[in-house]
Design brief:
The protein has 226 residues and is of the alpha/beta class. The protein has a single domain, classed as 3-Layer(aba) Sandwich (Rossmann fold), CATH 3.40.50. The protein is built from six helices and ten strands; from the N terminus they run βββαββαβαααβαβββ. The strands form two sheets. It has a six-stranded mixed β-sheet with strand order 6-7-8-3-9-10, with helices on both faces. Bound molecules: adenosine-5'-triphosphate and magnesium ion.
Length: 226
């Protein structure tokens, strides 16, 4: 099954002489169980692409389909609901809620989805354990290290059991060992639960845990490792 289709997507920020073309006729397909690495220099359009795929930004042209839902045809409200249930997003910089504990950052996000409360609670505890955060669950983000915050953000993306997982540099503030663990956890989530995932990374060592690599340069997608 096709998990994701990006069809001829162009994204232009602004207009007139200040317009920036961040994506240029991007095409991409992802099947269920597939974990894709997205590589490219700073400013090449990686975050823009993830944002358009996750429905956080509307493309200027083109369409995004997740499973059999044409995301670009949904209203804003429908997109929000769809995202809460089907897409897990790990942002660059994590975006944790500062006045909620690590555990609450997971459960609050999942409570926007339609998942039953007891399921959310169980899954939260399981994920915190798997992410090595079992003894940090009552701490606020400011009481956590950068790497711990990053793992909370990853747990938050996984807790509502999304079909598509989008991660923007999940290992940027982790050492090699922890980074490897986190990427292996993402890979095993995707494989064992039949999901699809895209991971932006600068770290070539993390690419071996993914199935395929796509490069992006000046908003253009280039398939293959080259
Ligand atoms: N809100 C915005 N308004 C105008 N231009 C933007 C906006 N967001 C991003 N851009 C521009 O679009 C281009 C792509 O940005 P994007 O954030 O997607 O890059 P990136 O590949 O994620 O980079 P990095 O590796 O530094 O995170 C850049 O030229 C950037 O300056
Ligand atoms: Mg970025």
């Amino acid at each position: 099954m096709t998990a994701l289709t990006v069809n001829d997507v162009t994204k232009v920020y602004g207009s007139g002489h200040t317009a920036v073309r961040a994506l240029c006729h991007a095409d991409l397909e992802l099947s269920d169980n597939e974990f894709l690495a997205l590589l490219g220099p700073s400013g090449s359009g990686k975050t823009t692409l993830l944002s358009v795929i996750g429905g956080l930004l509307s493309p200027t042209e083109g369409s995004v389909t997740i499973g059999d839902t044409a995301l670009t045809e949904l209203s804003k409200k429908e997109q929000t609901r769809f995202r809460a249930n089907r897409v897990g997003f790990v942002f660059q910089g994590f975006n944790l809620v500062p006045f909620l504990t690590a555990r609450e950052n997971l459960t609050v996000m999942a409570s926007i989805s339609d998942a039953p409360r007891s399921e959310i609670e169980d899954r939260t505890d399981q994920l915190l354990e798997e992410l090595g955060l079992a003894d940090r669950h009552d701490n606020l983000p400011e009481e956590l290290s950068g790497g711990e915050r990053q793992r909370v953000a990853i747990g938050r993306a996984l807790v509502s059991d999304p079909d598509l997982i989008l991660v923007d540099e999940p290992t940027a503030s982790l050492d090699t060992e922890l980074g490897t663990q986190v990427v292996q956890l993402l890979a095993s989530e995707i494989k064992s639960r039949g999901k699809a995932g895209i991971m932006v990374t600068h770290d070539l060592r993390m690419v071996e845990y993914t199935d395929r690599t796509v490069r992006i340069l000046d908003g253009e997608l280039l398939d293959g490792p080259g």
